[in-house]
Amino acid sequence: MRVPVRFLPLSASAAALALLTGCFSATGSGDAGAEGGRIRVAMMQPPRSGLSPLSDDAFKLSRWSTAETLVKLDAQGDARPALATGWTRSGRSWTFTIRDGVTFHDGSKLTAEAVVRSLTRAATASPKPRILDGVDLTARADGNRVVVTTAVEDPLVPQRLSSPQLSILAAKAYRGKTVDPVGAGTGPFELTEVDGTSSASLDRYDDYWGGRAEAPGIDVTFVPDGTARAAALRSGEADIVEAVPVSQAALLDEDLITEVPMPRTNTLYLNTAKGAFRDPALRAAAREAIDAESIVKGVYEGRADVAEGLLGPALPWAAELREPVSRAKAGRPAGRTITLGTFTDRAELPEVAAALQQQLQKAGFRVKLDVREYAAIESDALAGEFDAFLLSRATVLDSGDPAAYLYSDFASDGSFNISQLADASVDKALRKAGETPTGDDRRAAVVAAEAAVLATDAAVPMLHERVIQGDAADVVGAAHDPRERELVTAATHLG
């Protein structure tokens, strides 16, 4: 059943908008919203770690085009030059040539020593940035080159170095106990001011190595309330709004919103080690019982994509390589009782779980729901306490490569193996995917590993999420990035 959407009363919406208006008016140089003026951005989540690049706040620095990395990723997820112009590999070591003519926002020059300083700070941080979890990495300067060495051979080193968590900053950023990115990046916009968790300001950096930015600056306001963010776009108080809620999208002009496929899949994990779903035929029965299309239409109001596999449209090459998978024939549930777990932290999941309960009961299962906050349910899910577990799972981690996700979730020794899967053919396919060098061969190996997992019915992918971004009518060149690494670029401006 579709739960009715409840909107804020008019007075509450007006109050939120008034607060937001005050925030935007307090920042910038006064030409916000004018033709060729500063770009006003309403972002969902405020900084959690003072905009330290060693945290998830790094993605904000990347989306504002203020901090840059040695490498960037193209649409296929392949590594391309950024602050490094090229690289070579020899066993466990990779040598990166540093771009000439780059300056930090404080006027100091980008050198190999500066790169080593940033990478070493990240590699020795406690805790390490997520992209270096389990990776032992060292860096040393060699003239205008940097040699990066890992404890074991790692074909993903260039992709890892594309993570915003490994941004290269000036020496001034590292003078305190925490990393301070203000005035320390290399991008087309200089971060000039941060007002706690309320706002941030950036000015165009005219000496940017890639050419002068189109816009004179960016004024950012952090607006956790989705209704207020959408209201800011409707009223013209914001030029770019990230993460417009599904419930608000219908109230906006369709020309102002863009739905961006996310590398995130809603998947039903089935416990292969014990209970009803130890039987492959009953796993097949559960798969056949699920009507993902009705969930997309009912819960997500059509703003999601029905899954054909674990990897969705944010990775377009997966669909191009995917072939039909042979699966077990469905058996008869015969009233078997199963417990389905999920969590409340993502608003749609309890509603999806209720829809799944009805669909599975119609097929002959008896279904009990267990819905809690994620922090209270994760340990039970990983311990195999549920027959089925509904999860919204990111399929591409910080390296831009899905092999790590597949291994974590479906290898016999995977750290996030909710399905309790232990299958020799799956393990073999996952190892091959992880060891294959990047490029077409690795993509083919990843899709083969996905097929091996799907053949077991240990996981039933249902839908791929989208994020809804709002751009005012006069915004030109805003980025719509599935990996959420870009938002305002040097080419973005108000027309």
Automatic annotation (TrEMBL):
Nucleotidyltransferase keyword on record: no
UniProt keywords, alphabetically: Signal
Superkingdom, natural source: Bacteria
Leader peptide range in chain numbering: 1-34
SUPFAM superfamilies the record matches: Periplasmic binding protein-like II
Domain Solute-binding protein family: 80-415
InterPro entries for the chain: Peptide/Ni-bd, SBP_5, SBP_5_dom
Protein's recorded name: ABC transporter substrate-binding protein
Source species of the chain: Streptomyces glaucus
